[in-house]
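hey
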């Protein structure tokens, strides 16, 4: 996938400005009663809405001793295991949720050839501050059904440059309790001798790598050392149960890219005679040779030249075997990366030209150790003759609705093709990954005799899309219409069938969709990445429920953002990504600038009153009563708003999610009532009412009663039930959520990497007693936010205080430290340590800020901040601490750029 940090639908700016006393109505009452110990749960069945693929697959790993045991890794969508019986992939990392969302970036995997139930994954999404956690090694003894975690003392970048190189994790095939891991960012080579439980740096390994894609990158994404990139064992130099002696390691260093140990890792040396000027992306040993594929860049997007080499292990002699050598500058404009040796025929190998975007990727095959090659198509501009067929009938969107001119074709054979593997048990089966899918074949050897290789998607079950918006109209042929990053979006008439993507207009990402509540056949969508050459814009409109589209007019340069369509489909408000907020007085007509609302605000329409629109920006809520022409401030002090929706059928009823909880307004945002059970919210949506009720069911991704999860309320928030569980958390899911207005209990959930999920209750509902009144009272507040007061310079060391009180034998301390600062903001960390003789079941940390600091969001803990007083309690997963063990909670906060003292005391209470 394209690099992306965790998404929010609103700007992640500093929280907010001091308010004028008495000017606005805000929250003063809590709804829903006193929070319970835990919300009830209800069993649900969860499935993916089928899109099939959608993102980059940088690694495919076959087990070498168990047939049909295959794993795939993705850069933002987790890891998968192949199910041969159903010809589909099983997701393996759904248990990791918002607190460890980065674990869905999988940098490398290794499957044990001795104890085949064991599998390992190196996880973490970013090397920079986008991912708040360090990386980890996950280890499983049941083929990924469950995982144990070893946290690492550094970050891992599963969605960073160089992620297609590898595999960086490798298991000694003779002594399978020994593993190696090649790391990024100068952290070197690491080793475990206890099956991945503990790890230590190999301190005598001589080169941590030095290749950086762009040292001057101000976004802090391209400027990391890509590190140690693969490990390969020569199994013949060991015996069962004893350490393999010959180990080869690839390093991201253009002059020194291959190292080895001939004594089981006791000492290391640069391999003599190796090629220079290129990075060895992948290395594999077979038939007495080390094979490497090289490129002048780290990938997965870039690469201008490359070569393929083999080294005879017995003599150390190197031979260049490139299908097109780098010296042929007229025909070599790409690097090599994908590499696989046929284990049934060690002289047969395949390589890919991963970075050839035009006219297509290249895939070559040799049956004589690289002396001669056949490729999947012959190309001499502008002529192209394919030696393959590509059947995308089951996944029709893979042609991206494009018509190409020769020698390009649609669908493409691929791009970013760094993962290619021949089945070690079946020479006719081969799989390779692209930037959007996995293709495969079961008649690969046909290429060797002049035949045609039949390719098709091998992707069912692997859902790797970043979902940006979801709508479920109350009528029409489609229960679900989606906005998706990178591949546009979809209109599903059958949730179990892959549809084609949006077209006419096409844009790469659909950021927002809306429909007219009183006339659902009218639908509007906006996005970015339009094919402007044919006059298409970044707004599409439909009058038949999304079956057909045409381009609407748009402000100059407008793209992205959010869009709202009024109740009867006659007015549109579009808050663009950068140009501002605009309104149109006709469906798809010309736009004019709106006033009174900040640029990039999120916009929504009232579902009853066709002249009323709403907007939010940071902690402030706005309303328009003249069709979006002008907005006025309705309420503030709501925390950083992450999403809100207007209730169908009830004018002026708003449900809002922010980093401080869930809120409801029944007066068009003039005042809001917070639900006491909620500590934070991500998103909210509505579905069909429960039997016997008139109020719609409410769905949310939120922290309720101390637990982050997906919740439903049938009674307007008086009570909540959790409808997911700890094994189904899906990373940072929930930025998009909606219920189904036609099917009670059904909810659609968008994720950032695991596609669209839908859940159905397994409980047959019964009619409840009469619903409570829909009215909610809230008294306006006249008090302004406290002003920031400067104080002394920050302490040079973290503060820590013991538990002021505890249950018998339980005690804890907490330390507060500042991790990093920037203008108007900083990142901090709380470390809680159990200091008693009995394990805690929970903890509570309290402190008071002295300089007006305000926490905007937190992970690993649930915060409450009232003025300067802050209280943090544990999440459900990190409250139990054995004596001497610790956990951390991280947070982002604002400060006044003058003084940011560490609060003291910081007290900890063990529960």
């Amino acid at each position: 996938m394209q690099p992306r940090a965790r998404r929010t639908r609103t700007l992640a700016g500093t929280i907010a400005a001091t308010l004028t006393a008495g000017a606005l109505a805000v929250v003063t009452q809590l709804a829903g009663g006193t929070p319970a110990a835990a919300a009830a749960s209800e069993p649900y069945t969860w499935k993916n809405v089928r899109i099939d693929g959608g993102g980059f697959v940088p690694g495919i790993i076959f087990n070498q001793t168990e047939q049909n045991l295959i794993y795939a890794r993705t850069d933002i969508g987790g890891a998968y295991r192949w199910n041969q019986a159903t010809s589909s992939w099983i997701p393996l990392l759904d248990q990791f949720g918002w607190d460890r969302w980065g674990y869905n970036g999988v940098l490398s995997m290794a499957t044990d050839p001795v104890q085949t139930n064991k599998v390992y994954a190196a996880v973490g999404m970013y090397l920079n501050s986008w991912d708040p956690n360090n990386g980890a090694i996950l280890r499983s003894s049941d083929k990924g059904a469950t995982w144990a975690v070893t946290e690492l003392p550094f970050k891992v970048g599963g969605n960073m440059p160089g992620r297609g190189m590898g595999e960086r994790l490798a298991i000694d095939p003779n002594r399978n309790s020994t593993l190696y891991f090649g790391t990024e960012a100068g952290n070197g080579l690491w080793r475990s001798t206890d099956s991945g439980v503990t790890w230590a740096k190999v301190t005598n390994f001589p080169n941590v790598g030095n290749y950086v894609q762009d040292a001057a990158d101000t976004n802090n994404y391209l400027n990391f050392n890509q590190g140690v990139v693969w490990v390969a064992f020569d199994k013949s130099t060991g015996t069962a149960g004893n350490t393999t002696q010959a180990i080869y390691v690839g390093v991201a260093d253009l002059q020194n890219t291959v190292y080895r140990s001939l004594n089981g890792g006791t000492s290391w040396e640069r391999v003599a005679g190796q090629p220079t000027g290129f990075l060895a992306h992948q290395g594999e040993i077979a038939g007495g040779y080390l094979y490497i594929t090289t490129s002048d860049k780290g990938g997965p997007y870039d690469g201008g030249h490359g070569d393929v080499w083999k080294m005879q292990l017995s003599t150390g002699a190197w031979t260049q075997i490139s299908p097109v050598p780098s010296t042929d500058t007229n025909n070599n404009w790409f690097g090599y990366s994908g590499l696989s040796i046929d284990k049934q025929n060690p002289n047969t190998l395949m390589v890919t030209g991963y970075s050839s975007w035009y006219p297509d990727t290249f895939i070559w095959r040799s049956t004589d150790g690289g002396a001669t090659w056949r490729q999947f198509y012959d190309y001499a501009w502008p002529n192209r003759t394919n030696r393959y067929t590509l059947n995308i009938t089951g996944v029709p969107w893979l042609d991206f609705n494009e018509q190409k001119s020769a020698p390009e074709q649609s669908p493409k054979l691929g791009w970013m093709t760094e993962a290619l593997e021949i089945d070690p048990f079946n020479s006719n089966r081969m799989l390779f990954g692209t930037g959007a899918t996995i293709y495969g074949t079961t008649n690969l050897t046909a290429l060797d005799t002049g035949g045609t290789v039949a390719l098709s998607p091998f992707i069912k079950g692997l859902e790797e899309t970043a979902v940006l918006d979801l709508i479920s109209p109350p009528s029409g042929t489609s229960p679900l219409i989606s906005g998706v990053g990178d591949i546009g979006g979809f209109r599903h008439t059958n949730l179990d069938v892959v549809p084609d993507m949006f077209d006419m207009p096409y844009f790469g990402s659909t950021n927002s969709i809306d429909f007219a509540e009183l006339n659902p056949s009218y639908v509007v969508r906006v996005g970015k990445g339009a094919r402007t050459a044919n006059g298409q814009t970044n707004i599409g409109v439909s009058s038949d429920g999304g079956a057909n589209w045409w381009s609407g007019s748009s402000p100059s340069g407008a793209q992205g953002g959010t869009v709202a369509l009024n109740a009867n489909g006659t007015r549109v408000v579009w808050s663009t990504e950068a140009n501002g907020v605009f309104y149109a007085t006709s469906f798809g007509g010309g736009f004019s600038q709106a006033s009174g609302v900040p640029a990039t605000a999120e916009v929504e329409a009232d579902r009853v009153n066709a002249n009323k629109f709403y907007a939010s920006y940071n902690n402030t809520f706005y309303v328009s009563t003249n069709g979006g022409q002008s907005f006025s401030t309705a309420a503030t002090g709501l925390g950083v708003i992450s999403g809100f929706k207007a209730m169908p059928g009830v004018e002026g009823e708003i449900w809002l999610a922010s980093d401080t909880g869930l809120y409801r307004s029944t007066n068009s945002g003039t005042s809001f009532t917070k639900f006491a059970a909620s500590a934070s919210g991500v998103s909210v949506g509505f579905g069909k009412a429960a039997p016997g009720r008139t109020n719609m069911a409410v769905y949310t991704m939120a922290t309720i009663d101390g637990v982050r999860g997906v919740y439903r309320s049938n009674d307007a928030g008086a009570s909540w039930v959790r409808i997911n569980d700890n094994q189904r958390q899906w990373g940072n899911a929930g930025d998009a959520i909606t219920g189904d207005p036609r099917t009670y209990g059904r909810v659609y959930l968008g994720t950032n990497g695991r596609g669209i999920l839908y859940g159905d209750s397994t409980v047959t509902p019964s009619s409840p007693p009469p619903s409570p009144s829909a009215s909610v009272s809230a008294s306006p507040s006249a008090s302004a936010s406290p002003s920031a007061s400067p104080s002394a310079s920050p302490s040079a060391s973290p503060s820590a205080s013991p538990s002021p009180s505890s249950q018998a034998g339980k005690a804890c301390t907490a330390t507060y430290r500042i991790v990093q600062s920037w203008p108007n903001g900083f990142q901090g960390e709380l470390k809680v340590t159990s200091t008693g003789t009995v394990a805690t079941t929970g903890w509570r940390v309290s402190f008071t800020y002295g300089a007006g600091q305000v926490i905007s969001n937190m992970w690993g803990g649930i915060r409450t901040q009232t003025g300067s007083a802050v209280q943090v309690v544990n999440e459900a997963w990190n409250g139990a601490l054995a004596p001497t063990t610790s956990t951390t909670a991280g947070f982002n906060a604002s400060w006044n750029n003058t003084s940011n003292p560490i609060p003291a005391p910081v007290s900890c209470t063990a529960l």
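The chain has no helices and 69 strands. The radius of gyration is 28 Å.
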